[in-house]
Amino acid sequence: MLRYLARRLLVLALTMVAASIVIFLLMSVVPGDPAQFMMGMNADPAALAALRAELGLDRPLLVRYLEWVGGLMIGDFGQSYTYRVPVSQLILDRIGLSLPLAFLALLLSIVIAIPAALFAAQRHNRAGDISVMGLSQIGIAVPNFWFAMLLVLLFSVTLRWFSAGGFPSWEAGFVPAMKALTLPAIALALPQASILARVLRSALLETLGEDYIRTARAKGLSRGQALRRHAFRNALIPVLTIIGLQFSFLLAGAIIIENVFFLPGLGRLVFQGITQRDLIVVQSVVILLVFAVTLVTFLVDIAYALIDPRLRRGTL
Amino acid sequence: MSKRFAIGAAAAALLLGSTALAGAQETGATIGMQLEPPNLDPTAGAAAAIDEVVYANVFEGLTRFAADGTIVPALAREWSISDDGLTYTFTLAENVTFHDGSAFDADDVVFSLTRAMAEDSTNAQKVLFEDIASVEAIDPATVEVTLGEPNGSFLFNLAWGDAVIVAEESAGSNATNPVGTGPFRFENWVQGDSVTLARFDTYWGEAPALETVTFKFIADPTAAFAAMMAGDIDAFPNFPAPENLVQFEADPRFAVIIGSTEGETVLGINNSKAPFDDVRVRKAIAHAIDRQALIDGALFGYGTPIGSHFAPHHPAYIDLTEQSNYDPERARALLEETGLSDGINVTLKLPPPSYARRGGEIVASQLREVGINAEIVTLEWAQWLEQVFTNADFELTIVSHTEPLDINIYARDDYYFRYQSDEFKAIMAELDETSDEAARNDILKRAQQQIADDYVNAFLFQLPKTGVADARLKGLWENAPTQANDMTGVYWEE
């Protein structure tokens, strides 16, 4: 297990180094000058040059790369060109929204998906199964921004139970903050829950054909009992993979939902950073996300190994 | 039936509850904006969103724009101009303090203007100050500014957001913690979400009615609509979805405020690139465009056609739209004259705003009618600035020039449309030497005529200011003489 861990950690470190180089190089070839963007039309060339010098944009590429990576090592992400505040502070503020939102959505999708999958698997090919699968098909097909807009129309514009968007920050209190996250979390969770339910259902059905289930049934367990006690644990591996992927998606990929609900999240920070050519923000958030994704993959791998001891020794 | 009644009653109770809540909050206002300012220092950034938050609210200059676009006294209560037009003597307002408690006097004016024109200045509108030879404090309440050459626009230049007065102690941190002399002080900025201002209790002038103002940033037009409808936002002075305005107009809860901006929207033509270096080709393009169809299609009917680079609400405006009226026959004839009757292929580079994207589609189809095949290339702002604006690597583009009274850009040889005219430069030089209002207006009329005669660009429309507000919120600017949300005169009607 230790050697397995060490190998995984090495891969993690190498991935990060490679990613930092690729990201930095990509950012440096993106057309559009950050200083020009900030100064806009009619900008004075002398003022533009002064700003470029102030932002350090006139220095060689290698110097800027080493400085950036050196800073990252000690947790210094540099300073945002446009906002003129430390990037780490911006990221922290945004994570304060994106992380709870992602967790909330993930939790919601698990809470919906597991009972739905168990329910469907127990009624394989009967009406219950078919209707759950039908619903999940709709859940996957409906774009989440559209569903989000429906939620806003119903609960904000018509019923006025929730505000249409925005985030009051955690300082405003737990309840207002959670209230602001409820609709976006539901909108995000629905398609995720649908995918999860489908994957879990097929995994469950597959395990039902295994010998140990037959043994369990022979000992007198009902189909449902066998499912819950024996098949469930074994069906978890594909589900964990999906959950891992979903978490990364929810953390960074919620840009559209963040736009619908005008939430100041991580996704929108990157989006804004790109349009405003605030490249230091973009590269720092992207490297952080790469780190998050590789870390989640790493943790999922470890979890596999814990669930299924065969994997620790295998060549997977 | 009873169930439905119960739901109705619950909804009504909720509605009442929320109105009651809104009633209790009516000491403040929440204003929607589409773009978030990158920072809050108007002297070190060009983004319009900076002025939209801080202009007249947090920062004040020596002079300022009034709601009707005229220049009125601000921190300078009065002034005198020497006969040669070179020396301006300003008498400053007294008992003025900055939000951090420090006193305002002539030294702050000297500091602010000197800083803006300095070698290493990052002021985006440095050009506003280039005629200043010296700035001197005569006594704490008097400042004398001497110009190198007469500049009839000087008082106008001082009204810009880029010319606001800042204090030496706080100038460096204004980007994140703006300290000005205005009626509102900066309170809080939740990046990505909102900026909050609070009434400054020891303001030297008349106290504003609102206790707090929150600017909330909502980029998405659909989200802006929902936020307005749900009552999260009290006013959206530049509402991003004109297609929804009809719906607001029909709803008694809201008032729709349509005004004019300083944004002359043009189909920019690269005058240095063949075949556009031939005035007949540019003229053909101008005649190929049906402005009203464009306004109806791209702006849902809001917007005023223009025939030169000038705002229709300005006293010096002359209507030159007839000179480039919609006449596709004429356009085709002109193209034939230049030997281009077989048609030409050009690119039309469009920046992100919807007036440009939607307008571009319509312009392209109108040009196609006369044999000009315009291939649309969409760009992000940063790309547009680099390719089109800085490097003039374009043939046609659509953009709105939102700065007030900016006709002088036609006197700059390296400006992106690459227009070069000694006649026009002579007119601008004359303008600079004139400070008499009536005489200036005559010169401005000649300037409009000159660029219309040269068909520098195809002049499309004056960008409208389409605002939506809670019907009880009064005192918002109808027009936008500069890009600001002046909250000093805004109040809730009882």
UniProtKB/TrEMBL annotation, chain A:
It is found in: Cell membrane. It is a multi-pass membrane protein. Pfam families: BPD_transp_1, BPD_transp_1_N. PROSITE patterns: ABC_TM1. GO terms for molecular function: dipeptide transmembrane transporter activity. Residues 95-300 form the ABC transmembrane type-1 domain. GO terms for cellular component: plasma membrane. Keywords: Cell membrane, Membrane, Transmembrane, Transmembrane helix, Transport. The chain crosses the membrane at residues 9-30, 101-121, 142-162, 182-200, 235-261, 281-307. Belongs to the binding-protein-dependent transport system permease family. This is ABC transporter permease. It comes from Georhizobium profundi.
Automatic annotation (TrEMBL), chain B:
CDD domains: PBP2_NikA_DppA_OppA_like_6. Keywords: Signal. Pfam families: SBP_bac_5 (PF00496). This is ABC transporter substrate-binding protein. Residues 1-24 form the signal peptide. One of its GO terms (biological process) is peptide transport. GO terms for cellular component: ATP-binding cassette (ABC) transporter complex; outer membrane-bounded periplasmic space. Gene3D superfamilies: Dipeptide-binding Protein, Domain 1, Dipeptide-binding Protein, Domain 3, Periplasmic binding protein-like II. Belongs to the bacterial solute-binding protein 5 family. It is found in: Periplasm. The keyword Hydrolase does not apply. The keyword Hydrolase does not apply.
